[in-house]
Structure to design on (232 residues):
DNA sequence: CTGTATCCGAGATGATACTG
DNA sequence: CAGTATCATCTCGGATACAG
């Protein structure tokens, strides 16, 4: 029946969200994606400053995770000393609408919190 | 200069995202919101089934967190035995576009993964 | 500058049993 | 049915020092 179809649809959608969050878990990943989403190209030390409170160890680990999942691309630049540039892959860029929505919501949320 | 303004804008956006994720942290919160987003009204035991692998303890805790942050509303129904209904608040409903984007992305992501 | 290595504690999460 | 209580585990994540 139609109810059954609705159930399956919901279940599938919820699983999709869960799959997405599997890749984006952790305290910092989404913020990192956000940084690359807005700056487009960004260096290790720059991202370190973008995210208030993250340690270099965590940033290193999270970047590695994101790279493994093909969300970001890592490029070593031929400078002295070496610098490394990160950017979203075409695939990672598909998260832009998510980031923008979250930005809007987060900004509103901040107002709510401060308002109290 | 304009560059300065751009910087501030980026920083602000990244902070907004981080604020949003502060409320939505944890392995399950976004999936719970997704469940309520698609089902609109949902009972404790139903959500338990929606999210594959969550324990009742975690669900209880996450629901409490979400309620404290005014994202969901908890209603005790006068049935025998008692049943409890959860739903998004008007405020929580503002996350719908985030959820929908994540659903789309997650579905695509799943295809990518399975494709390998 | 961009990481890695190590140590450590706190909190997140899970399994199971239990209560109103 | 909707949780709580308890215990065990495991991962996250910070601090610090070090390396190429």
């Amino acid at each position: 029946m139609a109810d059954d179809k609705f159930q399956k649809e919901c279940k599938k959608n919820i699983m999709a969200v869960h799959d997405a969050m599997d890749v984006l878990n952790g305290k910092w990943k989404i913020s990192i994606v956000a940084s690359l989403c807005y700056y487009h190209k960004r260096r290790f030390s720059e991202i370190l400053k973008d995210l208030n409170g993250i340690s270099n160890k965590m940033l290193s680990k999270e970047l590695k995770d994101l790279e493994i999942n093909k969300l970001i691309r890592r490029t070593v630049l031929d400078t002295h000393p070496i610098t490394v540039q990160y950017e979203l892959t075409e695939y990672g860029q598909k998260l832009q609408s998510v980031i923008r929505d979250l930005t809007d919501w987060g900004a509103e949320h901040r107002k709510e919190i401060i308002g109290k």
The longest strand of chain A covers residues 72-77.
